[in-house]
Amino acid sequence: MALAGCPDSFLHHPYHQDQVEQTPPVSPRDLAGPGFPAQPDRLTNHQEDDVDLEALVNDVSASLESLYPACSMQSETVPLLQNGQHARSQPPPSGTRSLQPQASPRLQVQRSQPVHILAVRRLQEEGEQFRTSSLPAIPNPFPELCGPGSPPLLTRGSLPPSQAAAKQDVKIFSEDGTSKVVEILADMTARDLCQLLVYRSHCVDDNSWTLVEHHPHLGLERYLEDHELVVQVESTLASDSKFLFRKNYAKYEFFKNPTNFFPEQMVTWCQQPNGGHNQLLQNFLNCSSCPEIQGFLHVKDLGKKSWRKLYVCLRRSGLYCSTKGVSKEPRHLQLLAGLEDSSIFSLIAGRKQYCAPTDYGFCIKPNKVRSETKELRLLCAEDEQGRTCWMTACRLLKYGMLLYQNYRIPSQRKPLLPSFSTPVRSVSENSLVAMDFSGQTGRVIENPAEAQSAALEEGHAWRKRSTRMNILSSQSPLQPSTLSTVIHRTQHWFHGHISREESHRIIKQQGLVDGLFLLRDSQSNPKAFVLTLCHHQKIKNFQILPCEDDGQIYFSLDDGNTKFSDLIQLVDFYQLNKGVLPCKLRHHCIRVAL
């Protein structure tokens, strides 16, 4: 039963329900009384304008029965009289006409008629008994939210990759321990992220910056290839693993000097190369040439601490060891590791963590392994050249032409740049031009080579003027000038108070290429400095001693034969001249704070 304008709590009151059950059905004229005033004559004389509520309720009940066939609507839907009472066991009068509502829209809007909603309310209360299959077949746009065990919120990975978030935050660490959180796109490569960090850190982009995948708990690290997706690599990292932003000058050194990487006794070819720089590259990048790297390696047994020295052969299909001496027959070869679903890492502290026989260890790590060490294939070479050869060969056989394309991208951009390129400058500095004021009137220097020569001459003239000013301002001619003793500390190649072992570690991390160097304070002589230089994959140290001439302090590498007023002049000289060094200074080790 339902009454227009009455609350549901009043309808469910027990005393009211008993009174309603005992009340006999009355006619519309019986409603006229003290509590129900009579209808106006206008409505009485025009009954054809009224809507037959009983027929209307029956139509609504029939509609509900057609929508919900599983529910018995006849037992729940009861016709209402005009006074809102139920006609329970009483059939409708025989003389009742079923009139269709013909009233005007205006009258339908103005009049308020009782509507029977008990069946709908009952369906809502008993909704657990009915399944959604009885409802009309409307496609559900969010099926993952309707399962009984599904949480109301979307979890990571519940959406398809195409609808996932297009950006993600990645935390990058530098060598000095500082870090920066960078928001990157899901399809950003390692090269793109390095260029972004170079731009934000105001560094010079010389295409030698790389991202390092560092696993401190495993003692492993590797340089990401330029084409690898950063987000995809990050999804495979463990909780304590991280990315490092570091220089790597040896990333593509093989394409520059391929003959220095592979000794003749370690390489065999199915098709003998004719010789030459380009032929060696083509044989490695060509799948039909089938190069093989062979030699002895120390191999660690899986799940054990023991190491064995075995004859190993590297092919495109994987890394194999011989079970019988140096035989390479198929029946004597045993697969050690595959390259397709693995990555090549270098060991950070192999002797301490894995009891490695040498310091030149590397590892073939399956991509599915995060923190377990049982499935790591650990190997050790006899020297640094051997380790570099094996790791470079693994990269070439795995990626092939992708590495060469990564190497060629900066080379293709280089011809588009001007011949006289300077470090990245601000917009205001880019508007400046080189001028020559040696004559009566100034002129603009348009030749880039002449502009570079003028800039170098201006720099040397400034140093000479500053040296004379320091000599005049010093209290004693025997006391060294303050500027010449501290000006080098502002340079990136000076690393301050670090040990010999730390300097060697930094050079190894940034690539064992000829001419890679750094300067540091001497541990044996507090007034001296040390130049640490890499040549032929070996690290050498040269001491820079102070010397006195005419009351002025100079610095020299060759016992005073060549003297320099400060370390900046010394570095500039040996970048242009080899002198007593085995090679020129080409690249300097740098650490950038993010």
Write the layout of secondary structure elements.
Elements: H1 8-11, H2 14-22, H3 41-45, H4 53-67, H5 73-76, H6 105-110, H7 118-125, E1 167-173, E2 179-185, H8 190-201, E3 209-215, E4 220-223, H9 230-234, E5 242-247, H10 253-256, E6 267-268, H11 277-285, E7 292-300, E8 307-315, E9 318-322, E10 333-337, E11 342-347, H12 350-354, E12 361-366, E13 377-380, H13 384-399, H14 401-413, H15 427-430, E14 435-436, E15 443-444, H16 448-473, H17 482-486, H18 500-509, E16 516-521, E17 529-535, E18 538-549, E19 552-556, E20 563-564, H19 567-576, E21 587-588
Parallel strand pairs: 1-5, 16-21
Antiparallel strand pairs: 1-2, 3-4, 3-5, 4-11, 6-7, 7-8, 7-13, 8-9, 9-10, 11-12, 12-13, 14-15, 16-17, 17-18, 18-19, 19-20
Domain Ras-associating: 166-250
Domain SH2: 493-589
Keywords: Cytoplasm, Phosphoprotein, Receptor, SH2 domain
Outline the structure in words:
- This protein is of the alpha+beta class.
- It has helices spanning 8-11, 14-22, 41-45, 53-67, 73-76, 105-110, 118-125, 190-201, 230-234, 253-256, 277-285, 350-354, 384-399, 401-413, 427-430, 448-473, 482-486, 500-509, 567-576, and strands at 167-173, 179-185, 209-215, 220-223, 242-247, 267-268, 292-300, 307-315, 318-322, 333-337, 342-347, 361-366, 377-380, 435-436, 443-444, 516-521, 529-535, 538-549, 552-556, 563-564, 587-588.
- Strands 1, 2, 3, 4, 5, 6, 7, 8, 9, 10, 11, 12 and 13 form a 13-stranded mixed beta sheet that branches. A six-stranded mixed beta sheet has the order 20-19-18-17-16-21. Strands 14-15 form a two-stranded antiparallel ribbon.
- 21% of the residues are buried.
- Residues 95-111 have a biased composition (Polar residues).
